[in-house]
Amino acid sequence: MSHHASGPNFGFPRGDARLDMTDLYAFPKPGDPGKSILILNVHPSFRLDSPEPTTKEPFAPGALYEIKIDTNGDAIPDICYSVQFASAEDKQQTATVRRIQGARAAGFGDDGEVVVQGARVSVGREALVTEVGDFCFFFGWRSDPFFFDAMGNFNQMQFTGDDFFKLKNVCSIVLELPNSELRSNEVGIWARTLDKTGEGWVQADRGARPLQTVFLVGEEREAYLGGEPANDDRFIGVFAHELEHSGGYSPEDAKVVARKLLPDILSYYPYEPARFPHNGRTLTDDVVDLFFSIYANRNVTDKVGPHGDLLNEFPYLGPPHDALQQL
């Protein structure tokens, strides 16, 4: 997550940019503490290692894009909001959102209660918003809110403040919902994408906390992306080993830090101010400086700050940049 290419060798999961998770956000609705905003960003418009655009179609038709919510602290979902997209002959995509509760929330969200159906997906600058009861939805291309000197990172963390993502786009799923729908004053949130194959559903990507796949290589990354937070203890040793190497942690301290990073879940208290990593994640939280300071075991800044095109109203993400029209 937040690598904008989190699959094998930092390519796209299952070779499909539309299945690539970039970031997950959770914060109270500005001006209305009784509601929350959940944002799942996927499908970066460009690869980190290539100037070529990905694909114009926002979401993979038939795939599942799911936000999982744990309400009792066992790292197993009790609520799932699952989004599935269809494409019409005129290339216009529409979204169906299903809500699944209880034990079935840990499964695949293609058969839950339909919350909204046929919602239009935005492909231009105008944000097409769908309202259903106390819910509000947005699906489509937006300006990528992630900020990071990615090229400085590839240059041995020699940061210059050049924000690679300043003019990039992502595809966003934005959900506004009453806090009562979360059923708890403390929840854990993560997301995943799933691809339909001849053998059934295959998990392509998953995550909550940004940047953590940097700890993993090869088969370990494959296992992580295909895994579940409830089983993340198996990666503590891998994380700890990388922390010893990257930050000079002692073996004992490395395990302590690794346990703070796992399971890969975003803790969220809906009635309190949001700030990563203690409570959700806002669109302006500087997660890069925090992560690399932990990773290197010293104070690190990439000299990059939040983007200036964020909105004060739903869907909060700025309109897509003109480069999208060239796809």
General description of the model:
The chain has 327 residues and is α+β, with helices and mostly antiparallel strands. It is 14% helix and 30% strand. The protein contains five helices and twelve strands. Strands 3, 4, 5, 6, 10, 11 and 12 form a seven-stranded antiparallel β-sheet that branches. A five-stranded antiparallel β-sheet has the order 1-2-9-8-7, with no helix packed on it. Strand 10 (187-197) and strand 11 (200-207) form a beta hairpin. Helix 3 crosses helix 4 (251-261).
What is the mean predicted local confidence, pLDDT?
Answer: 93
Specify the oligomeric state.
single chain
Structural class: alpha+beta
**What is the distance, rounded to the nearest whole angstrom, between the alpha carbons of the first and last residues?**
24 Å
| Tally of separate domains | 1
Segments where pLDDT lies below 50 for 5+ residues?
Answer: none
Q: What's the helix-strand series?
A: EEEEEEEEHEEEHHHEH
Radius of gyration over C-alpha positions, nearest whole angstrom: 19 Å
- Summarize the main sheet: 7 strands, antiparallel
Q: How many individual β-strands?
A: 12
Principal-axes shape call: globular
Helix content: 10-25%
Strand content: 25-35%
The number of helical segments is: 5
